[in-house]
Amino acid sequence: MDEALELGTYLPQSFASADEQRYLDFLWSAFQTNYEAERYEFASLAFHLLYMSFVSFSIWQIRLAKPEQFAMAMVGFRSDEEGSLMDCESPFKFYDRLKESQIFRFLKLIGCTNQQVGEFAKFVKRRNKIAHPTGTVFFNDRPAIDAEIADMMKEVRNIEAHMQPIIFELYRRFLTERADDELWQFSAPGDEVTANLLHANYMSAADLAFCRTFDIASLQAEPGHVAKQTLHQALIALYPPEEAEAAA
Fold first, then answer.
1. pTM of the predicted model, to two decimals?
2. What is the DSSP string of 24-56?
3. Is 204 helix (H, G, I), strand (E, B) or coil?
4. Distance between CA atoms of 1 and 31, rounded to whole angstroms?
5. Handedness of CA 176, 178, 183, 185 (dihedral sign)
6. pLDDT of residue 4 exceeding 80
7. CA distances from 112 to 56, 131, 162, 207 (A)
8. pLDDT confidence of 121, banded at 50, 70, 90?
9. Cβ–Cβ under 8 Å, residues 7 and 153
10. Contact 236, 212 (CB under 8 A)
11. What backbone torsions phi and psi does residue 184 show, to the nearest 5 degrees?
12. Which of 102, 101, 65 is nearest to 82 (CA)?
């Protein structure tokens, strides 16, 4: 169970949409309730949906950071799929346009190999077997589901490690676009960070840990350094390192 809960470190800290927040809360509740009741088959389904949500948030971040490369990666899709995928207003909408297994191909944009992509996607096939009436229970005991969770968490950590350059790009862009504090959407730095960094980019505690290590001094020669530094300090104040360590 403890390793499963670690997935929360890699999921968004909060959501702008109350519906999205309720959905993630529902999945966590479904996983924990079924796990504790030893209904491991259903617990595995809920955990898989949490895993796929994590993948969706990562793909969303890749699309934001690398729009041109993302568009090129869609070569081979139908033209209507290409347009609609770029226009998705939420990570949860990706699956309206794509099969689950297709979405993993975009992880190649962060340097993942075909072999790694195959490892990430293998859980979809396993889940599909469970989701159909086969007359077989795949997860009969706690060691079986714990082994599956450990396998999935290994891939989550692998994806997150590859995401660091993406998170740095999104954070640098967030700061650069707010060099003039008169143009901020919110007067309070913390509100600006929450709305336009966390919520817009579906940032997790693990993502924020990357952001905290960003070398803010590297932007000193650029315009608006004081405004950028103010936002960086607001981020650290809102999400200090000890909170991330506790979550992990």
1. 0.87
2. HHHHHHHHHHHHHTT-HHHHHHHHHHHHHHHHH
3. strand
4. 10
5. positive
6. yes
7. 16, 28, 7, 18
8. confident
9. yes
10. yes
11. -65, 145
12. 102
CB atoms within 10 A of CB 42: 16
Return the structure tokens found at 199. Answer: 């919520």
Task: Give me the numbers of helices (H) and strands (E) for the chain, helices first please.
Answer: 14, 0
The least confident of 23-32, 83-92, 129-138, 213-222 is: 129-138
Q: pLDDT, tens digit, for every residue of 37-63? A: 999 989 999 999 999 999 999 999 999
Return d(Cα 54, Cα 204) in angstroms, integer. 9
Whose tokens are 């290590």? That residue is 213
Q: Does 189 score more than 80 pLDDT? A: yes
Residues 171, 211: Cα–Cα separation, whole Å: 6
Q: Which amino acid is at 164?
A: Q
Token pair for 165: 């350059």
Residue 189 CA to its chain's centroid (Å): 24
